[in-house]
TrEMBL record:
Domain annotation DUS-like FMN-binding: ranges: 21-333
Positions contributing to FMN binding: P23, M24, A25, Q82, K154, H184, A240, R241
InterPro entries membership: Aldolase_TIM (IPR013785), DUS-like_FMN-bd (IPR035587), DUS_fam (IPR001269), DusB-like (IPR004652), tRNA-dHydroUridine_Synthase_C (IPR024036), tRNA_hU_synthase_CS (IPR018517)
Signal peptide (from-to): none
Catalytic residues of the enzyme: C113 (proton donor)
The protein's name in its UniProt record: tRNA-dihydrouridine synthase
EC number: 1.3.1.-
Entry's family note: Belongs to the dus family.
GO MF assignments: flavin adenine dinucleotide binding; tRNA binding; tRNA dihydrouridine synthase activity
Role of this protein: Catalyzes the synthesis of 5,6-dihydrouridine (D), a modified base found in the D-loop of most tRNAs, via the reduction of the C5-C6 double bond in target uridines.
Gene: dus_1
Transmembrane spans: none
Co-factor(s): FMN
């Protein structure tokens, strides 16, 4: 791989730098995306995954569209929206709206979620890795109704270590017309345990003819992003959980890929201020009561890995008003880095 790596092309869309922000349920809403954009470095941002069946129900019952589409109509592009379900026509109804009314940059299909509510109860997400023909039908239908907006797919290596079929699935995804494939380097049964298998991700590239391969899993530093491009046959990378409390990680990774000095971690006081800005955005959208409760999990992410994080989490998990939130942050947000072990 030459450095810096070339821009990633998804259909006619150019992603530069080739660093993507993963869609994460419950986290990657408009407030979080706004914070990431302030720091820069992410070539493509994504919403939380949207339940297509729920979207259709809301549409048919004149209800407000899902909170997970908050901000999508107005915010900067490029932007991807990820959707899930197991019925091609349901997915097509939503994909058509996203592509032609919301005018999103990419419609992504979730074939990777391992959560029981999505897999066992709804037979969607990573459950569909055992049904390549159904996957093909969903992708091809979405490609048809979304054109010229590109449709992409995100998968895992397989349903379990005993049933890894990502090579077969990769060919199915490309032949159905998808414009890119993202692979998380674990199986669904692994959930988030163990290490992502980047060797296995890299091997998938030989099974693709024309579409780019995006690797995902365990990218928690600029150095690991550089190593992914250096050591593995991928066209792009996707950063997930590591960015939730470190939205500046994309800017650090982009600098490293350019060969520029990597920006240092913000000071703890600066990180606290970023978190407070994030809190205000959430409260502006959802109101103080709901916004404060929603912010608890984000606040825990910002404190993760710091000295006193557990103490802070214990207190912030109980807040329900702005006054309580600011008080806990003032008194308990970590003021020193985690000790080196």
């Amino acid at each position: 791989m030459t450095f810096p790596p070339p821009p990633l092309r998804i259909g006619d869309l150019v992603i530069d730098p080739p660093i993507l922000q993963a869609p994460m349920a419950g986290f990657t809403n408009a407030a979080f995306r706004h914070i990431v954009r302030q720091f820069g470095g992410a070539g493509l941002l994504a919403t939380e995954m949207v339940n297509a069946r729920g979207f259709v129900w809301m549409d048919e019952n004149d209800a407000e569209h899902p909170d997970r589409l908050w901000g999508v109509a107005e915010e900067a592009r490029p932007l991807a929206v990820q959707i899930w379900d197991n019925e091609p026509e349901t997915m097509a109804k939503v994909g058509r709206r996203l592509a032609h009314e919301y005018k999103v940059s990419v419609v992504d299909i979730n074939f990777g979620c391992p959560v029981r509510q999505v897999t066992q109860k709804a037979h969607s997400g990573s459950y569909l890795l055992r049904d390549p023909s159904r996957m093909s039908a969903i992708i091809s239908r979405l490609v048809e109704v979304c054109a010229p907006t590109p449709v992409t797919a995100k998968i895992r290596l397989g349903c379990s270590p005993e049933s890894i079929n990502c090579d077969v699935i990769a060919r199915v995804v490309e032949e159905a017309g998808a414009a890119a494939l993202t692979v998380h380097g674990r199986t669904a049964a692994d959930m988030f345990r163990g290490n992502a298998d980047w060797d296995r991700i890299s091997q998938i590239k030989s099974h693709l003819k024309n579409i780019p391969l995006i690797g995902n899993g365990d990218l928690d530093s600029a150095e690991k992003v550089v190593a992914a491009f250096t050591n593995y046959d991928v066209d792009g990378v996707m950063i997930a959980r590591a960015c939730l409390g470190r939205p500046w990680l994309f800017a650090q990774a982009a600098a490293a890929l350019r060969g520029d000095p990597v920006p240092p971690e913000p000071t703890l006081a600066q990180q606290r201020d970023v978190m407070l800005d994030h809190y205000q955005l959430v409260v502006d959208r959802f109101g103080e009561d709901k916004g404060t409760v929603l912010m608890r999990k984000y606040a825990c992410c910002y404190a993760q890995g710091k000295h006193g994080a557990r103490h802070f989490r214990t207190h912030v998990a109980k807040v329900s008003t702005a006054e309580e939130f600011y008080s806990v942050v003032r008194e308990h947000f970590p003021s020193a880095p985690a000790p080196v072990v």
